[in-house]
Automatic annotation (TrEMBL):
Alphabetical GO biological process terms: cellular detoxification of cadmium ion; detoxification of copper ion; phytochelatin biosynthetic process
UniProt-recorded name of the protein: glutathione gamma-glutamylcysteinyltransferase
Enzyme Commission numbers on file: 2.3.2.15
Enzyme class label: transferase
One of the Pfam families matching this protein, by short name: Phytochelatin_C
Organism of derivation: Rhododendron simsii
């Protein structure tokens, strides 16, 4: 049976007031004059219409993340990094969101995973006065924004549960401006704040819990300078379960005697989708306009900080143990980076290393299932006057798709040859496994402290706890590890469907 087509709806007024009406314009001017529309201008610059009828949560979040200038850390289209609804597939598959929408708790989880600072409250955890205070705070600043989850029926509108950002506040009339992302249906409109609270103070039929609101702002520093969790594919569920649930059980069941045994238990059973779960995000941004590989000052600064954090990671005692383990499991002499006078061969070496690393990260021995595109190349940069930085670029291709990789290779005045031949010459020798060991070190440091409690031998337990302790790590590295730990815990809560009850930030 054919469905009748619709062109917009008439906005029920009252209680709402159309933003573009004479009264709506007057409210806007008065609110601007009183200083409670500061957040509006950033939001309106990135205002978008949800691309699917059930994408109101995704559209609201993408709009706010872009307004806050949060870097997604991965490409949207071409060379551009940009938040789009299609990229917000972390805590719920897009097909499911398309069919049934997204819950309040899952949207909070998604905001966390996207690199934002989030404070979320159900109406049972707050009051209308608290809500008003937060709306005023965000309306008088462009550094935070409010997304409201409410029931349309309270405003006599058609439909049920809905998400939209709040664009401003009129203090004299106590009204909030809803920037409705379903612009094909209703325009932006003013509503009484107390009525908006009533609309939020309704029960979501799917979760059985009250709706609410979330405050989204930027973190004090960019998260995950080196590493980030990617839950783009559903495989992240099994991987989160492996690290948080299975690893502690494995350590309890195995009679481990030394650090190498501990690492063997964990790393020898990595899920096959491990490569898709942990993505290296150290990258050098290229300028599209002239493709001259020049870096902006901001990018040079970020790259310099990344180099510092990477060096701090590689100076930890745990990194040495991981590196030794990988060297014992793989023939490291096959994965040496050598800078020679004839750099025409370097891209070929890099291509091989790229594939071997991909195979290792996916838990597959060898690289026969991977190939690298011919675009693989090597560039050198001087960053803020410090020693040169090497970047290897390539594309790993397997049967299910391809993944672009930009790998920052730490330079060194003197490196030990993996074959035991002593210090290398000043041409510099690098092990490809060094990049992998740094990533694995970060993940092991990020595991919850209780992960290791199943180790039976007390002396070994204390040694492991000392190796994975974050207390004495340099500040930058500590922040990196704790952010990664928070992401992992949040994703695990998402797997267990606990995000609906526990909206707080991840506990470090």
């Amino acid at each position: 049976m054919a469905t009748a087509s619709l062109y917009r709806r008439t906005l029920p007024s009252p209680p709402a007031i159309d933003f573009a009406s004479s009264e709506g314009k007057q409210l806007f001017l008065e609110a601007v004059h009183s200083g409670t529309m500061e957040g509006f201008f950033k939001l309106i610059s990135y205002f978008q219409t949800q691309s699917e009828p059930a994408y109101c949560g995704l559209a609201s979040l993408a709009m706010v993340l872009n307004a806050l200038a949060i870097d997604p850390g991965r490409k949207w289209k071409g060379p551009w990094r940009w938040f789009d609804e299609s990229m917000l597939d972390c805590c719920e598959p897009l097909e499911k969101v398309k069919a049934t929408g997204i819950s309040f708790g899952k949207l909070v989880c998604l905001a966390h995973c996207s690199g934002a600072k989030v404070e979320a409250f159900r109406t049972s955890q707050s009051t209308v006065d608290d809500f008003r205070k937060y709306v005023i705070s965000c309306s008088t600043s462009d550094g935070c924004h409010v997304i409201s989850s409410y029931h349309r029926g309270t405003f006599k509108q058609t439909g049920a549960g809905h998400f939209s950002p709040i664009g401003g506040y009129h203090a004299g009339k106590d009204m909030a401006l809803i920037l409705d992302v379903a612009r094909f249906k209703y325009p932006p409109h003013w509503v009484p704040l107390t009525l908006l609270w009533e609309a939020m103070n309704t029960i979501d039929g799917d979760s059985g819990l009250p709706r609410g609101f979330m405050l989204i702002s930027r973190l004090d520093r960019a998260p995950a300078l080196l590493y980030t969790l990617s839950c783009k594919h559903e495989s992240w569920m099994s991987i989160a379960k492996y690290f948080v649930d299975d690893v502690p059980c494995l350590l309890k069941s195995e009679d481990v005697k030394d650090i190498k045994n501990v690492l063997s238990v964990i790393l020898s059973s990595l899920p096959t989708h491990f490569r898709e779960f942990i993505n290296w995000v150290v990258e050098v941004r290229r300028r599209e306009e002239d493709d001259d590989q020049n870096l902006s000052q901001e990018e040079k600064g970020r790259l310099a900080i990344k180099e510092v954090v990477l060096k701090q990671m590689q100076e930890t005692s745990l990194h040495k143990h991981v590196q030794d383990f990988l060297s014992s499991e793989k023939s490291c002499c096959k994965t040496i980076f050598t800078r020679t006078e004839n750099e025409d061969y370097f891209p070929e070496i890099a291509a091989g290393v790229c594939c071997q690393g991909a195979g290792l990260l996916s838990g597959i021995s060898g690289s026969s299932q991977f190939s690298c595109c011919q675009e693989t190349g090597v560039k050198y940069f001087n960053v803020n006057g410090v020693k040169p930085v090497t970047m290897v670029s390539g594309t790993v291709v397997n049967g299910s798709g391809q993944q672009g990789v930009d790998v920052l290779v730490p330079s060194s005045q003197s490196e030990l040859s993996c074959c035991g031949s002593g210090p290398t010459s000043d041409v510099g020798v690098y092990q490809a496994s060094n990049d992998v060991s740094s990533l694995l070190t970060a993940l092991l440091l990020a595991l919850p402290p209780e992960t290791w409690s199943g180790i039976k031998e007390e002396k070994l337990l204390q040694e492991v706890r000392s190796l994975v302790s974050t207390e004495n790590l340099p500040t930058l590295l500590q922040e990196e590890v704790l952010h990664l730990r928070g992401q992992l815990q949040l994703l695990k809560r998402c797997v267990d469907n606990k995000v609906e009850e526990d909206l707080g930030a991840p506990l470090f």
